[in-house]
Amino acid sequence: MSKRVKRNAASVLVRAPAATVAVPAWRTVLQQAMQAHQADDLDTAERLYREVLDLRVAQPDALHYLGVLCHQRGRSDEGVELIRTALQGTPKHPDAHNNLGNIHKECGRLREAECCYRKALEYGPQHHNALSNLAVVLEAQQRPQEAFEAYEKLLKLAPGFAQGYYLLGLFLRNNAQNIEHIEQSVNCFREAYARQPRFVQALEALSVSLYTLGRKEEAKQVYRDWLERDPDNPVPRHMLAACGGAEAPVRADDDYVRDTFDSFADSFDEQLLKNLDYRAPEVLAAALAAVLPAPAASLDVLDAGCGTGLCAPLLRPYARQLAGVDLSGGMVRKARQRGGYDALEVAELTAYLQQQCRAWDVVLSADTLVYFGELGVVLAAAHGALRPGGWVAFSLEMEEGEEDRATLTASGRYRHSHCHVVHALEQAGFDDIRITEDSLRKEFGVPVRSWVVLARRGDGPQGA
Ligand SMILES: C[S@@+](CC[C@H](N)C(=O)[O-])C[C@H]1O[C@@H](n2cnc3c(N)ncnc32)[C@H](O)[C@@H]1O
Known about the structure:
Blueprint: H1 25-38, H2 42-55, H3 60-72, H4 76-89, H5 94-106, H6 110-123, H7 128-140, H8 144-157, H9 162-174, H10 179-195, H11 200-212, H12 216-229, H13 234-242, H14 254-274, H15 280-289, E1 299-304, H16 312-315, E2 319-326, H17 329-338, E3 343-346, H18 349-354, E4 360-365, H19 376-385, E5 386-399, E6 406-408, E7 414-417, H20 418-428, E8 430-443, E9 446-457
Helix pairs in contact: 1-2, 2-3, 3-4, 3-5, 4-5, 5-6, 5-7, 6-7, 7-8, 8-9, 9-10, 10-11, 11-12, 12-13, 13-14, 14-17, 19-20
S-adenosylmethionine binds next to helix 14 and helix 15.
């Protein structure tokens, strides 16, 4: 498991059993299984947990952690069953209830998750991870008052818990009804960072709140100070440019993308849970459905910037072969756990596409080209990677105005003008360009105006 600060810290809560004088064999194997699990060696861990269960039938810790592991490997139903069986043996086990809640939460079953966290708190009232998770699922169910009360309780219960301040800060910003809430979020992020000086997500969040408040110089200063302490870090470098404190790159640097999404991978789906309005995969899939033949598992489909694999189930019915490519190994690991792809690769998108000559019938890119400023090079590569008659589909954030423009914004993502998109597609050789306006997600509770783009590689001899 990564050493980074994880927003979903409770995903794998594996605790050592108490030492005993004469250690039975099953206990030694359990320790080894847990060590392998902690080290992310899931094959070994699974084999050893099963060995424990052979030595000691229905051993609750082995059942419980094997359940967590099955979920991590994309077998969530099996994971739920295993943890439920563990709870028959030890019904008052707060960690097991909490981990069961995490599986439900990550599968989008928020009500069930809530019940599990409440059970965890019934048997372990001091379980601050369970309380933090409860607050998150209340927020995701759009019950802000209850979520706020849970966050407040969390900070009383665990005043040193940096994550609690961070989550409350995000909650206040995302649900802000007035400027004071954004100001309070600034205080929360400062508190989080003060409690855990390596908690750099809190610094980034602090700067975004300052920028939102119009305190742009303070926002830039956060990144300048951060860069002074850590000059090679791509995150403050990119974000300083995003705040207007340095020149914007033509696209987000590979190191920035890798760093950002590797550390975001574990909480990505949770963030989307809270932001129920993230619709890019569904909207793009619907746009494609209007131009593709009825799904017949007959096309070669590439999910370009596949992230954790949210598009896979929507693309699968069309695909003879479904591949995903992404620069972030952490995101690809999650996509692999989720399943649904025939192949997954960790690679930079433009370079990858440039090596795929007429290989795909569909290239779909959901919420990924927002990390590209100038679109010409990547779209030319997509054109070359498509077979004649093939379709590219992607989403972008909208830059208003008539000019040909791509602008890096304080969020770290780019916005593109209509003219820039059309120009880049035409230059790349696409025809049948279809651009519609939609809102594909919210930022700070406000819908983000977006473009939904489809274009076709011509089916002439050159595919132009
Ligand atoms: C906001 S996520 C969207 C993921 C997924 N498409 C979805 O809709 O859930 C953006 C993804 O683009 C990937 N990405 C950004 N720039 C990239 C690049 N130059 N090459 C490959 N992947 C990139 C990131 O690693 C991240 O996983």
